[in-house]
Amino acid sequence: MRSAFRRTWRRVAHAYHLACARDDAAKRKITIPSGVWVCDHCHEALLELHALREHVRTRHAYI
Ligand SMILES: [Zn+2]
After folding, report:
1. What does the alpha-carbon distance between residue 23 and residue 3 come to, in Å, rounded to a whole number?
2. pTM of this prediction?
3. Which residue of 19, 29, 47, 62 shows the fewest CB atoms closer than 10 Å?
């Protein structure tokens, strides 16, 4: 029960993080083509969502 809640929360937090990264890029007048993800921490662009997840997890140990 508790761990299920945690998994859901992590998903929500991650989605929020991605939305922020895109908003942030938009504010800086950077156009992100669909399918490209930009890391919110070091602004590295990654071509796949899976790659971004791995990147954030391994480089930044975020959530
Ligand atoms: Zn990064």
Report:
1. 30
2. 0.42
3. 29
